[in-house]
Every structure is written in C-alpha cells, then in structure tokens.
Amino acid sequence: MTTLDWAGLVPDRASPVPLYYQLAAAIRERIRAGSLTPGEQLPAERELAERAGISRMTARQALADLVRGGDVVVRHGVGAFVAEPKLTHDALHLLGFTEEMGRNGGAVSSRVIEQDVVIPPPVIAAALGLGPGERAVRIVRLRSAAQTPLLLETSLVPASRCPGLEHEDLERHSLYATLELRYGLRPRAARQTIEATVASAFESELLGIPRGAPMLLLEGITTTDRGTPIEWFQAIYRADRVKIAVESLGESPALAMAAPPVSVMLT
C-alpha cells in the first residue's frame, strides 16, 4: 500500500469545485509527478473518505473519475491500483504503429482481421484519386502493445500502385516499411482528424473493453513525398490507454490574419 501526503489531499470546502473532483485531481497530480507509480495500490474507499474528511460516496466518485480517465484500474475483490502510463500517439510526426512503438521501446504485435482487394466507397476512392471501379487493398488489423490490445486500424491502399500487397505478411512487417521498401512509396505526410467516439460491440469484443467505452478516432489520408495519396486510414484507439500529442505554434496577429482560415465543426 502506498503512502500518501494526506494533508495535500484534503479538499477545500470553500471552493466551487466539487469535492470529489478536487480529490481526484490531487491524486492524478501525484501520479503525473511520479510519487504514485504504476502498480501501486491506492487506499480503500473507506480510508480515503476518513483521511480526506469526506463521505464514502464522495471518495467513490473520486475513484470512479480516476478510473474513467485511465489513471487507475480496479481489480474486483482486491482494490484500486495506479494504471500503467498511456501510450502517447505523436500526431505531429508520421509514424506507423510499429515504428512508433519501436521508438518508445515497446513490444508490438498485430493480428490481421482482413486483407483483401475491394472496391472502396466513392468518398474514399475520390480521396485516393481512384476512378469508378478501381480497387484498393483493405487491411484491418488489431494492434497490441505488451500483449494489451490498443487499437483497431483500417487502411485502404490503391491496388494499382501496390500489386500483391494483399499477400504481404502484415502481421510481422510494418505497412509503411513495406510501402517504401517494396513499392518505392514513402509515406511522408498525413492530414487527419481526431474525434471522440464510443466502442461498438465489434470493437469492444476485439479490444476486451465494455461496449460504449470511450474511444479516440483518427481518420485521414497519407501522401507520399511526391504528394500522391497512398493510404486512407482509420484508427480507433482505447481512450483509457492512449493519449494524443500535438504541438501548437504561436504567431503574430498580423500573420494570423494572413493565414488561411481554420474551421472547427462540432457534431
């Protein structure tokens, strides 16, 4: 059982912020700082309530908030434990899942669910620069790190640009490395969107999570170093195990006025 600085966890009753939220934020801060490390057991709900001077219901809400955020995992009949750190997906640099995990020193595995030649939907065909009736290789893979399923990934690649891709071993080899080394197509850039969604019955079964669990959906087009569209992709990540890293650059108001407009749509 871990030792906590209880004085720093007592919520401020004069604050408009709910007591459970204050407690959860204080524990989360200690996890981020490393004073609570992955695998450490948190105090039981009753002890949290007594030491923090709050009700058991409030302590239960705080733990539930930490679980929803992926900071804590509950082992039924045992207790609450600090979760393993989330995988950080670097949205700034174009890396395949295999390369990204390799850079972070993680063990990665893939399970191919589908790998076949199909006629893509018209919207995807247009994004890939394909004409009516032109085919694409559809690849659906379950991607795991340290034997934990993290995401379901779908790629559609123009079949005419990558003949035989449907027969490549993409459980053992990276798609991006295969595109570059076998077909001379170097993935260079991607335009992608990120949105929140929930797990379907199919996704929950594959990822081992409850149906309706929060997910992160990335979708976009990858282009080569010559600007040729080479892949339409959709990646559905477990929100409890993955976070997205981006970088924002500031600029002067004058430059901002001259820049192309950016629109954000909430649906």
Total strands: the figure is: 10
Name the CATH architecture of the largest domain.
3-Layer(aba) Sandwich
Helix and strand content put the structural class at alpha+beta
Number of domains: 2
What spatial form do the alpha-carbon principal axes imply?
elongated
Q: CATH topology of the largest domain, anyone? A: Chorismate lyase
- Count of DSSP helices? 8
Give a verbal description of the structure.
By secondary structure, this protein is of the alpha+beta class. It has 2 domains: 6-82, Winged helix-like DNA-binding domain superfamily/Winged helix DNA-binding domain (Arc Repressor Mutant, subunit A, Orthogonal Bundle), CATH 1.10.10; 87-245, 3-Layer(aba) Sandwich (Chorismate lyase), CATH 3.40.1410.10. Helix content is 27%, strand content 30%. The chain is built from 8 helices and 10 strands. It has helices spanning 19-33, 45-52, 56-68, 97-103, 122-127, 175-183, 201-207, 253-258; strands at 72-75, 79-82, 87-90, 108-118, 136-145, 148-158, 187-198, 214-224, 229-238, 242-245. A 6-stranded antiparallel sheet has the order 4-5-6-9-8-7. Strand 1 (72-75) and strand 2 (79-82) form a beta hairpin. Helix 1 crosses helix 3 (56-68). The protein starts with 18 loop residues before the first helix and ends in a 9-residue tail after the last helix. Mean pLDDT is 83; it is low at 91-95 and 259-267.
Gist of the model:
The chain contains eight helices and ten strands. With 267 residues, it is of the alpha+beta class. The longest helix has 15 residues, at 19-33.
